[in-house]
Amino acid sequence: MKKGKLLIFSAPSGSGKSTIVHWLMETHPELNMKFSISCTTRAPRGTEKDGVDYFFLTPEEFKSKIAASEFVEYEEVYTDKYYGTLKSQVTRQRESGENVVFDVDVKGGCNIKKIYGADALSIFIQPPSVDELRRRLVGRNTDSPEVIEQRLSKAEYELTFAPLFDVVIVNDDLQEAQRQAFEIINRYLSK
Question: Could you report how far apart the first and last alpha carbons of the chain are, in Å?
């Protein structure tokens, strides 16, 4: 069985990254894209389930796994708000032939690319502007004004990482961004 490849998606919050990834997975099952289930210390949102959307850990459990070098990448995004990807999870999925999808922050994306090199394709989904990003985050109606401001401040910083990715897709038209993502990934996986 052919070993799976890694597909890294990073973007500022509200750029449409998750929408694009879900569309690819639902519309193009032939790509055999499966999420890498990350760990996080944040609380579940909406209908998220442990072991399906994330492995929800306490900050103490997360720090214990850091100490044991169990992560491919991890990041303390905000104080005691950690996200990370277990090495064992990636290996298990790749060995079964799955193309593993990472929906991670920019530092995590850069770290995964550094470790896996040509076995990974890194894609940065960029919003058309910070103003459009603000409109999208407010429109989601999931975060307080303070959290939105935190996310926008972080987004400006994250945008500086775009040149470090293999591909940058500007999501100013969702269907066009989806089409570009499909073509790029399909080409990469057929190599």
Answer: 16
Are 89 and 101 contacting, i.e. CB atoms less than 8 angstroms apart? no
Helix (H, G, I), strand (E, B) or coil at 15: coil
Closest by CA to 80, choosing from 133, 42, 134, is 42
Which two three-digit tokens encode residue 190?
Answer: 């057929």
Give the separation between CA 40 and CA 179, rounded to whole angstroms.
Answer: 30
Q: β-strand 120-126 against 167-170: which pairing, if any?
A: parallel
How high does pLDDT run on average in the chain? 92
How far apart, in whole angstroms, are the C-alpha atoms of residue 188 and residue 191? 6
The C-alpha atoms of residue 191 and residue 186 are separated, in whole angstroms, by 9
187 has a pLDDT exceeding 90: yes
Please, what is the Cα angle at 25 between 29 and 122, to 5 degrees?
115
Amino acid at 150: Q
Residues in the chain: 191
Using alpha carbons, select from 119, 120, 118, 98 the residue that is nearest to residue 1: 98
What are 113-154's pLDDT values in tens digits?
A: 999 999 999 999 999 988 888 888 888 888 898 988 888 998
Q: Are 138 and 87 in contact (CB under 8 A)?
A: no
DSSP class of 4: P
Give the span between the Cα atoms of 140 and 145, in whole angstroms: 12
